[in-house]
Design brief:
With about 100 residues, chain A is mainly α. Chain A is about 75% helix and about 0% strand. In chain B, helix 1 runs antiparallel to helix 2 and helix 2 packs antiparallel against helix 3. The chains are: A mainly alpha (about 100), B mainly alpha (about 160).
Chain lengths: ~100, ~160
């Protein structure tokens, strides 16, 4: 088996790429896509710690399962909000949505 | 041998994730996201979490990426190559992400992870199902409640008002 550090390294790379995407993208759908990358980085960490530190206990896998379900619900609601905003204002670029700014 | 496989999967994850974040076309970005998630399911298979790998392919690649594609197609003229897809903070965001990664690198290299390692077989699918139905049954039921609430909320928000 590969040492635990390498798996954590992959997860850290994925997390930082996701953070970069959230901070730089203008399109709201792209921001949601980057958030999915961040959630997957967290999932990799959960499964890796479960496998290496306590393989007989399935807690990490079960929590990764819950994270996947929550991510599905979150992306559904987020995408519907984006589509509603698009119908309302014909724009989904995050820097043009300043309706609630005073 | 298994190390080489893992390094190939890890390289695929990182390259696909970079393409997801950097591609100008939003539809291409969604396709690269699907490839990233498939590679991540490879990591799950490598770690002995077969059920999670299958769920990853089914729910993420089969469900969530399809939703993203629908959202991209429903919001027209956003995949035009002439529209700028990044804001003015690219340099600062790059510096921040690299700094964050260096902090992670320091922590990962610093802590003696190998000290607490246990060997042994990974949990089987049967045990996983038993745990979900006995010890973790309350969060399991709450997840179904959250999914129902998300579905109802999505229908209510997405309804076209006359």
């Amino acid at each position: 088996m590969i040492p635990l550090n390498y798996i954590l390294l992959v997860s850290a790379v994925l997390f930082c790429i996701g953070i970069f995407g959230v901070l730089t993208r203008r399109n709201a759908v792209s921001i949601l896509i980057s958030i999915e990358l961040i959630l997957n980085a967290a999932n990799i960490n959960l499964v890796a710690f479960n496998r290496y530190l306590n393989p007989a206990d399935g807690l990490g896998q079960i929590f990764a399962l819950f994270v996947i379900a929550i991510a599905a619900a979150a992306s559904v609601v987020g995408l519907v909000l984006i589509i509603a905003i698009y119908r309302h204002g014909k724009s989904i670029f995050a820097d043009e949505l300043n309706l609630m700014k005073w | 041998m298994s190390e080489i496989i893992f390094i190939l999967i890890a390289l695929a994850v990182c390259i696909f994730a970079f393409l997801t974040v950097l591609s100008r076309n939003v539809f291409h970005s969604a396709v690269w996201l699907a490839m990233t998630l498939l590679s991540i399911s490879g990591i799950y298979f490598y770690l002995g979490a077969e059920f999670l790998g299958v769920i990853q392919i089914l729910i993420y690649v089969g469900g969530i990426v399809t939703l993203f594609v629908f959202a991209i197609k429903l919001t027209a003229n956003i995949e035009d190559a002439t529209i700028k897809q990044t804001n003015q903070q690219v340099i600062f965001a790059g510096i921040l992400s690299v700094a964050l990664f260096l902090i992670f690198l320091k922590v990962i290299g610093f802590y003696p992870w190998q000290a607490g390692l246990l060997s042994g077989e990974s949990i089987s699918l049967k045990q996983l199902g038993q745990l979900l139905m006995t010890t973790y049954v309350v969060p399991f039921e709450f997840i179904s409640l959250i999914l129902l609430a998300a579905m109802v909320g999505a229908i209510v928000i997405g309804k076209i008002k006359k």
